[in-house]
What does this fold into?
Amino acid sequence: MDDDDDGDATATATADNTPDLALAYINSDTLLARYRYYEEVSDKLEKKKKKLQQEYARRAEGLQKQFEDYQRTATNMTIGQARAVEEDLTRKRQNLLQYQETITQELMKEEAAITQELYDKVASYLKIYGEENNLQIVFTYSAGSSLIYANEGLDITNPVIEGLNALHEGAAGANTADSTAVK
It folds into this structure.
């Protein structure tokens, strides 16, 4: 009996009993860098973040000036006036801290909503893309992920980005057309 024949028979039997499995992966870092929808919502979130930070800084500066004014004029105040101003400044400081906490939570919620929406859009598109291209599994790759190596031939990042951007542009075009339509 020939050893080569046994090896071929085992490989064939295994291949016959195992379904073909079509795999692919997307590079999530590249996707985030080139998906226009994500760029747009990230830019909006960053602008909102800067605006809120500026508002916080403006409020903090105002409170700091009030505190400095109090320190300059405290010697000319009665004990009752000084206590009233101190209580007012303490209340304003607490309000400022509460404002900071509120805007931080608001930004975190908005970022979480964006992340979920992004995931939903990509997963929905990948389901369609996978069905059209007979893929059973699509992995995601990013630096530090559990996917250490994959043949570059399995990388579908670019066509997925192109498809997502085409869908986004179509949706953005439809929204623009709706908003400019005569009502």
Summary: Residues 1-16, 179-183 have pLDDT under 50 and may be disordered.
